[in-house]
Amino acid sequence: MHEGKPRRKFHPVYLFLALPFACLLWVPLYNRIEPALFGIPFFYWYQMLWTVLGALCIVPVYFHEERRRK
Amino acid sequence: MNANPVSLTVFLVLFALVACLGFVATRWRKADLHSLHEWGLGGRSFGTLITWFLLGGDLYTAYTFIAVPALMFGAGATGFFAVPYTILMYPVLFLCFPRLWAVARKHGYVTAADFVRGRFGNRPLALAVALTGIVATIPYVALQLAGMQVVIAALGIPTKLGGIPNLPLIVAFLVLAAYTYVSGLRGTALTAVVKDVLIYITVLTAIIVIPAQLGGYEKVFSSINPKALLLTPGTSDNLGQGFAYASLAVGSLLALFLYPHSLTGLLSSASSMAIRRNAILLPIYSLALALLALLGYTAVAAGIKGMPEYASGFAAFGNNFAIPALFLHMFPPWFAGVAFAAIAIGALVPASIMAIASGNLFTRNIYKEFIAPGCSPAQEARAAKLASLALKLGALFFVLLFQTSYAIQLQLLGGIWICQTLPAVLIALYTRFFNPWGLLAGWAAGIAAGTAMAVQLGLKSSIYPLHVFGLTIPCYAALSALVLNIAVGFAISVILNATSNAPRRDETAAEDYV
Question: Where are the alpha helices (H) located in B108-215, listed in sequence order?
């Protein structure tokens, strides 16, 4: 069996999945105290915010996938 | 410490309830449990919701809930790496694992090594992947039992009942072993639901009640040593703690889904869309984990380390005692009972999945492959049940005979090892470029280099400083070993692909992956 599959074209919606990596792996971006939120330093609340944003980034890709399967 | 009768009663009632549920599960979605497919994968029938509970119970273990806050308690900001790690694993889950699910469904693969065997037709490579999975899982199970030990001690249950040391742990373990043996993954999935409800109740209460009692998060953070609050920034000749932090997150997330227990959870879902939906829904656990991590700081602010009543606990378990002590100090006794039950059941669920997953690996990739190739489905299921039992016994003896620190060190090595199966499993989902012998050589190189780095660090840390042209790069050993692994695999594959015309034995086809 050979690898002659109909290659899926890259769709820009997949770039959403790269966003959390860019925003969390460049640590100097958020390794700071200010601005604090309710007394929580930036370092902590920024990353906690990304638990939600990270999930939201997957949503448009999910809908794209769902459309593609129909 | 004396046992508080209220906490103890609440704990025992909840624990007994969950144990019963584990046995009742044989009747749930009734099927013939004498087949590995049914016993070890729940018949690949779980929808979005059950998969959510199962994977949540699987990935966020009791040990996580004790160790992550303990790391924050002891080391500060570095311990928070668990948060980016658990955020970033979901895009990877979304992209890669529906592919693996699809090809596994098509060909009836139960383990990652099954896939490797099918994709490359190379038995030594499949064996290497299977053995890595089993060896990496044993200390993981042992750590769950160790987490349970901490809770048992915090409840004040004497560790020596009727002259038998560790009797409570042995009893809890027997419960686990019995219901896993009888119900397989079904039992685990049902108990996972209860575990998660209890964990969420505990976490929400803890993060609202405890900081309020201490005067708000501002007070909590001001009691932390300012140096520990942030990572040490890099300098011109050292990339600093920030790089180590990011490399830990990436290395850990790559390792996580290669662990046999995560794959078992994923392959048991009924559709690839259920996996994709879970990539969106599972991050709720990451938020809970982040809030729990902050409890480590709350424990510092509460000053529990200086309290004489907890001194013996800290002496026995180190910083892992921080969260149980915080709960004892801050919660009324009945709620402390709920919280400890949540952690103890939180240990049962992943330990059970891990044992099932290793049982599957042993049966499919060692027993059936090398010992009894013609075995019937019933024999196959029996072998998996017995193997999972043996694995749990091994983990129990490990915890009873050795100090917890050995389990932690082996777990650290296990993470480095399991990461080295990535090229053969994940990269192979996308390309057939790699030659199986090249992958095997890369795997060996990665395991050797990763182990050497960890041993040089005295097995105390996994951040190995690499020196490149006068620049110090502190990097998670699993990740640097993986880079070497891929490089070796690539180089050998280039040579072998050019020189050998041995036919490829790939039983999968491109359309199986969609």
Answer: 112-120, 123-154, 167-183, 185-213
Q: Which of A24, A39, A43 sits opposite B87 (nearest CB)?
A: A24
| Nearest chain B Cα distance for residue A59, angstroms | 7
CA B264-B269-B271 angle, to 5 degrees, is: 135
Q: Do the Cβ atoms of A61 and B94 come within 8 Å?
A: yes
- Beta strand spans in B352-468 (E): 463-468
User: Which stretch of DSSP H or E encloses residue A64?
Assistant: helix A42-69
- Specify the CATH number for the domain of residue B56: 1.20.1730.10
pTM: 0.87
Q: CA-CA distances (angstroms) from residue B495 to B217, B473, B483?
A: 59, 31, 19
Profile chain B (514 residues) by mean pLDDT over runs of 10 residues. Answer: 78 85 73 71 77 79 82 87 91 91 89 91 92 89 84 78 72 82 79 85 87 84 84 81 88 89 86 88 87 89 85 83 89 88 85 87 88 83 87 84 77 90 92 90 94 87 84 89 94 89 78 78
| Minimal CA separation from B287 to chain A, in Å | 6
Nearest CA to CA, how far is B137 from chain A (Å)?
Answer: 27
- Which amino acid, one-letter code, is at A16? F
Residue B428 placed within a domain: no
B497 within 8 A of B435, measured Cβ to Cβ: yes
Residue B481 within a domain: no
User: Is residue B71 situated within a structural domain?
Assistant: yes
Chain B residues close to A17, C-beta within 8 Å: 91, 94-95
Give residue B119's domain range: 5-416
Residue B461 falls inside a structural domain:
no
